[in-house]
Amino acid sequence: MSQPMIILYDVPSNIPQPWAPNIWRVRLILNFKRLPYRTTWVEFPDIEETLRGIGAPPTSVRNDGRPVFSLPVIVDPIRSPQAPIVLSNASHIAEYLEITYPGQYNFLSAILISEQSAARQVFPEGSRALQALFVHYIQEIFAKPLLPIMVPLSHQRLPERSQTHFLSGTTPSYLSVPPEREQAWRAVQEQFDFLANILDKNSGTDGDGVVAMGHELTYADFAIVSVLIWIEKVAPHDGWVRIRQWNGGRWGKLWERCKSCMDVF
C-alpha cells in the first residue's frame, strides 16, 4: 500500500528553487509538521483551468462576479483517498493543516497519531486571532514597499510562457524596475526596522529575541520567512545580502531557525 501524499500546487521558474511567498508559507508548515507531500508545477496561464479541473475553490471574486483562481492550493487525500480535501488560500490551508494534523505524522494503515503535538503546532492555544492579524500586517503593510522591487524581478524569473501571460503589447508599469532603487530599499528598511523593534520585546525573559511568539516557531514566523525566501531567491545579491545584515543580523537568525523547513519535495 503506497503512502498517500498531499499535493501542493506551485508556479515554476527559471531558478532552481521556488520563490512565491504565499506558497512558501504552506510549504514551511508541511515540512514543519513532517507531512508527506509533493509539488505539482503549474504555469500561470494554466492556473485557472487546472484549479477548476480539481474543484479548487476560487480565492476571490472580481467586480463583475467572475471568480479568481490563484495559488497556493493543496489536495489532501490522506484521510479520505476517495474524496480528497481541496483547499485554496494560504491562511485557510494553514488553519486546516493545524486542525487536521496537530502533531507529527506517521503513516500506519492511514492512521494518524500525535506525538509531541505541542512541538508541532503552528497556532499555540489562544494565538490564532493574533497570528491572523500579524500575518495580515505582513502581507498588507510590511511587504508592500517590496512590491515595486520584487514584482518585476519575479516576473523575470518566470518561464517565457508565463512572462508573456502578463504582457499585452506593452509592459505594465508594475513590471518595470523602479529607477530609484536605493530609495525603494530605504522604504523597505523602514518596515524591517519597525518590525524588529516590535519583535525585540520578546527578548530576555519573554523569549529568545528571534521568533514572534517567544521561543517556538509559529505561523507568524513562517509568514516573515516566506518573504525572506522570496528576496533570497529572486534578489540574492541586491536584496538578501543587505537584509540579512539589518537589525543586528536578526533576519539571518530567523532564516537559520527555519532552514530545516525549507525542503522542496
From TrEMBL:
InterPro entries: Glutathione-S-Trfase_C_sf, Glutathione_S-Trfase_N, GST_UstS-like_C. Transmembrane segments: none annotated. Residues 21-98 form the GST N-terminal domain. Residues 129-259 form the Glutathione S-transferase UstS-like C-terminal domain. Pfam families: GST_C_7 (PF22041), GST_N_2 (PF13409). This is GST N-terminal domain-containing protein.
